[in-house]
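Example record used in the benchmark description.
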Amino acid sequence: MRFRVSPRGLGALAALALGAAMIFGARGPFAAPAAAPPPAVAPAPARIRSYINGVPDTGQFLPDSTELARVNDVRITVRDFIWAYFNSYAEDRPSQDSLGRVTFLDNLVNKEVLGPTARQAGYAPNYEDRVMLREHTQRVLANALFHHAVLDSSDATEAQILHVYEQYKFEIHARHILFANTTTARKVRADLRNGRISWSEAVKKYSLSTSDRGPDGDVGWLVRATMPYALADALSSLKPGEITDVIVDEDGPQLVQCVGRRTVVPLGIESVRGTIRDQLRAYQAGIQTERLSLGLAKEIGFATDTAAVAWACTFFKPPVESKHDIAGTSVQLNAWFPEFSPADTSRVLGTWNGGHITVGGFLEAFSNIPPILRPDSSTPDALTQQVANVVLEPYRAQIANQRGYDKEPAVVAAIEAKREQLLVEHLYADSVESRVSVTADEARAYYKKKQSDFITYPSRRFAAIARMSQAGADSVVRELKAGTPAQFIIAADSMAGFRSGAFHDMREDEHGNMFRKVVYEELKPGQITTIGPNHNGEVAVVQLLSVTPGHQLSFAESREMIDNNLRAEKAEAEFQSLLKRLRKRFHITQHPELVMRIRLLDPAS
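Model output (structure tokens):
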């Protein structure tokens, strides 16, 4: 069970990485109109009000309207800087130190240089651009509808806050069953209530969870502060032995049983009031969103083909996968994309008045979402929700248009920023990419100069098997020394119903792993040792299985990497040269000395 993430960052401007992560579309939709530079800021009082990013606030932080730069008549203010920074992809953002902030301010200035230049050059959106712009416009309008129809109507009363605060006064020992779909969850709940199946049998037969800490789906003692609203509210009134109704969260549909309750001394209400309010608003926003979607679906007669959806979801994988073993829990982004046969892409997933969506149509929309943002579509319920989102988005945009949201400055700015981004991409292709090439001689010279960079790291493969006591670990050691392969022991544990260990491949350049010292400094292939016990009494049995030495890559093996590196270097140099020429055509003023006085906090948090 995980937190449900609150809606945030809606209607954000598009970002474009050019050269050294040049951020495009960064000037926020709430930019102030042109005006004279503000007067000098008076000396700050000495009193410390709070800490911002670890820096004491003594009044030195600038107002949002303060001008940081100007390109001709376009002002870039503190507000623009903050919104652009947090609306860009986290991995593309420069650091928050002085160098990173100055770099980001330069990027904002460059955006105001490149945009007008691309427009003046006469570039026009091509067919692909128009398709992207149409989809972006629909998304912006749908987000505007969400803001007005959902977020603006979601609030928390004092009575609701006090009701939730009562739940902070006790903890609940719980266990759960995670199901593939709500239909099965409802059936199993009825069977449990009528005694047709035991909880233990239901867990073994139906649960898909890999995050349980104990047998029978046991998740231990739950603290209210770590629980999503729906789960906490459902559990708060249960007595030991009672089961919730079916709860659907980001993991999927599940049943949760109260095993025990105990009272605790809660934190003061003022210290958790903000958290409770945010959680209530997010929960209410979810209800409003579902109500809006159901109303739209009913209006257009939308329905999914449940059999087709149940079949198609098996081709998808969760966007984020958790791996649990003796080394702990690791989370990995799954960028894998499903593959269907050409014949299967024509299968219909849903229909509505005058239209239908096929597997191929859904895949096209799904592929346009960056891997890090792709929603889960690996269960029937999740895929049904995503198919509905694809189908309903244009209708949400229509409603937004009907309500006049397309005239709002924030919406207009977001759409125009995307249009300008597409034009700048054409400018970049013509003025930078078209001038970059790599010859065979250049590639060979690069390889000769940096040959030591083109190597593979040595790696070691080992097995780690956990036992709950030293005696159990000693038993595993005896089995391994007697010649029983580690995979047999792990497979036997799995058949017995618990995950005891796994195989790992660790590269020589990997650090921070609890097994590194043992694997790289103590063991030789075939040797066995134990680590522990830890504070829970667990002991890890480690066996080094094999060692793969690193080796020098040949020029042929390295050619693609060499070409990519050289192209990137040449493109960056060409891009900086282009910017240098273009900036001379504009009147530019910048105040890099002010960037460390920006109160750089995410406005959506």
